[in-house]
Amino acid sequence: MRNFKITTTGLSILILLSGFCFNLNELSAQTKKKDRARINADYVKVVGGEHYLNIKASARIDRKTVELADLDLTIYQLVDEEEVELGVTRTNSAGLSKYIFKNFNDLKPDSLGMYHILVGFDGNESFRKASREVDFKDVDLTAEWIQKDSLNYIRATLVEKISDSALMEMPLKVRVERIFRPLTIGEDYYETDEMGQIEVEIEDGIPGVDGNLNIEVVLSESDDYGTVISKITAPVGTVIVDESTYDSRTMWSPRGKTPYFLLGVTYSFIIVVWGLFIYLFINLVRIFKS
Asked: What average pLDDT does range 188-215 have in this prediction?
């Protein structure tokens, strides 16, 4: 066997080559192009209920918009140019997330009554960091059921909280809650008057459970106030008559509620068939014995 000697010069060259390859791989990883994440966020207030953000995360990959699932997002409030962390949320398989403000009254508006919320993404191996700022003011939207000349109306009032002033010419929608999609009452929207109010007549004949209608008044996607929803239950609907035949014995009822006449016909047919088989069997036995 031969003895190989590694000189100091050869060892230095080997170390330099290894370091060069490592730096080359690291540089390649750093220069790998990352896609840009896109974040959209809308503020929603349910009067007497939740304040939350509807968030959607997506990216443009190969000229196609792709929803970003399992993306960790951090929610901040911007106060005096400082970022105060409020919490974190994660997108679902459709790239959507709902972040509920746990203590909205603890948030601090600026001198003009504006809230500044930041949704931030720190980035990962595939996407660059991104953020979206949401700015809004707080408003009061009240709704009530009134009667005028034996007709039923919904009256809604929109007031800005910090200035306690009525908001004019703001578009409000009035609709009835339904299982799949709300039913709009009257026109697509109604603009508030100088008192910040609208009055919308409730049409007759709208069905409701026990005659009650769950009515919503909505300020939708306002640039200054976001989406605000006020709900009220009014006994102005038409009582729903239960025409269900689930507990009746019909042809389309469950197996346990088969009509009696059909059961009688079926069992009679079975008895006749089995009786015929027994009669033939007895005759065969007699013939065999004889």
From this structure: 92
